[in-house]
Amino acid sequence: MEYKTGIGYPIEKFIEFGNEVFGDEVLPGGFECLLPKLKKDTDLPKHFRVIEEEGELKAMLLSLPLTLKVYDQMLSIRYIGLVAVHESSRGRGYMTSLMEQAIKEMKEEKTMLSILGGQRQRYEYFGYEPAGLEFHCVVNKANLKHNMLSKPMDSGITIDLLRKDSAEAKQAYSLFTSIPIRALRREDSFYEILQSWRCIPYVIYKDGAFKGYLSISIEGNTGRIRELYRKDDSVSITDICFLCMESCKVEKLEFALPLPEIKKDKELQNLCEIYEIACNHSFCVFDFEAVIKAYLPFLSQTNKVLEGEAKFYIEDELYTISVSEVCQEVRRESVHKDTKLKNVPSYTYNEAVKLLFSPLSSLQRDENTEELRKWFPLPLYLSILDAC
Predict the structure, then answer these.
(1) For the chain, what is the total number of helices (H) and then of strands (E)?
(2) CA distances to 34, 180, 255, 270, 355 from 277, in Å
(3) From CA 128, how far away is CA 112, in angstroms rounded?
(4) Cα(268)–Cα(148) distance, integer angstroms
(5) In this structure, are residues 130 and 282 in contact, taking their beta carbons and an 8 Å threshold?
(6) pLDDT (tens digit, 9 = 90+) per residue, 345-388?
(7) 3-class SS at 307?
(8) Nearest alpha carbon to residue 37 among 169, 235, 191
(9) Number of neighbouring beta carbons within 10 Å of residue 269
(10) Which has the closest alpha carbon to 211: 228, 191, 194, 225?
(11) Is it the case that residue 38 has pLDDT exceeding 90?
(12) Environment class of residue 32 by beta-carbon count within 10 Å: exposed (0-12), middle (13-18) or buried (19+)?
């Protein structure tokens, strides 16, 4: 058994191996259709970690570097995906070896945050906890019937397929880069990213002018809108829903959108049949200070700031958070466990992730966390289109 990076392998080999291991789960078309963006990054093989037996690929893991822009802060993250072990080599600890090595490398390079999707208990061993916040909702035809006063076409609103290398594709990319919380994407792979998970990108027009874009996947009579951004409110969510149902021949739409966007959009909140605040992915937080600091401006962007100061321990580190109208600060200092103050709440790593970043935040609180109720959970989020 030999552990090595994926340098020297063509990306097609990893796609072929993934198709073989995942089988029917990635049909039709395999990973070529599921994640067309994989072939856009010529440097991608070096981010794979593999295990070989006698020169044959037997296990692989992709540790994809991404940058998450959160207002004026940049968070270095790694998305763990395409974790696969050949059927003939299962039970030998290869997945564990790959994950342990990936975690070691992330700590060495000072990665702030790692994200993945996968079976919870399998990845809890490595420090991943379900967290983040996203707004899930369903809109059906009955909702539209009771909310639409006229057909969107009567107001000059239409949607059409977004074409690669078109002027509208450039406008869509420009709109995306104006979003305050987002993963950085290269323009030359933006279109393929919008096609992730068999999504179809659409452009939104009003009177022939570009007004936004969306990316939707279709399964049976359900359309799943994975990303939706508008230039302004001149095109309503209700109109977009009607046009999507008509164009995609579906009976209902499911949305999974970031909380900062949905908080500004009362229309979708009031239109949808059912809704929930759900976990976004599983997260492994290496740098709580950096992540909290990046997301604290969310408080002043969307609310009247509730000023105050709070202290708490995560394992053997003391965190102090100060929030005012003009400034949000986070300070971290290492402490010896024998010097911990008894009146300052103390949390394990897993408890801290739930408290600070998950929908279960309110269930983690006690009488010592009154100040934290003002500010947490913070809306950690990564679009599924950036996942792999």
Answers:
(1) 13, 19
(2) 26, 21, 11, 15, 15
(3) 13
(4) 13
(5) yes
(6) 999 999 999 999 999 998 876 766 777 888 999 999 999 999 99
(7) coil
(8) 191
(9) 13
(10) 228
(11) yes
(12) middle
Do 135-278 and 285-374 agree at the fold level?
A: no
Q: Phi-psi region for residue 71, left (φ > 0), alpha (ψ -120 to 50) or beta?
A: left
| Residue range 2-111 in CATH 3.40.50.2300 | no
126, amino acid identity: F
> How far is Cα 375 from Cα 373, in angstroms, rounded to an integer?
6
Q: How many CA atoms lie within 13 A of 245 on its CB side?
A: 20
Q: Cβ distance 293 to 138 under 8 Å?
A: no
Structure tokens at 381: 């989020």
The length of the chain in residues reads: 388
Q: Provide the CATH number for the domain formed by 285-374 in this structure.
A: 3.30.1050
Angle between helices 187-194 and 167-177 (to 10 degrees): 90
Residue type, 55: G
**Interacting residues of 289 by C-beta distance below 8 A, sequence separation 6+:** 319, 330, 331, 332
How high is the pLDDT of residue 303?
66
Q: Name beta bridge partners: 203.
A: 160, 213
Q: Which pLDDT score, from 0 to 100, does residue 364 have? A: 77
Distance CA 206, CA 235 (A): 7
The per-residue pLDDT for range 47-85, each reduced to its tens digit, is 999 999 999 999 999 999 999 999 999 999 999 999 999
Q: Which residues contact 306 (CB under 8 A, 6 or more apart)?
A: 299, 323, 374, 375
- Contacts of residue 14, defined as CB under 8 A and 6 or more positions apart, other chains included, come to 6, 38, 45, 48, 60, 62, 82
Domain 135-278 maps to which CATH number in 3.40.630.30, 3.20.20.140, 3.40.50.720, 3.30.540.10? 3.40.630.30
Give the other-Cβ count within 10 Å of 244's Cβ: 22
**What are the boundaries of each domain within the chain?**
2-111, 135-278, 285-374
Q: How many CA atoms lie within 13 A of 150 on its CB side?
A: 6
Nearest Cα residue to 300 out of 380, 375, 381: 375
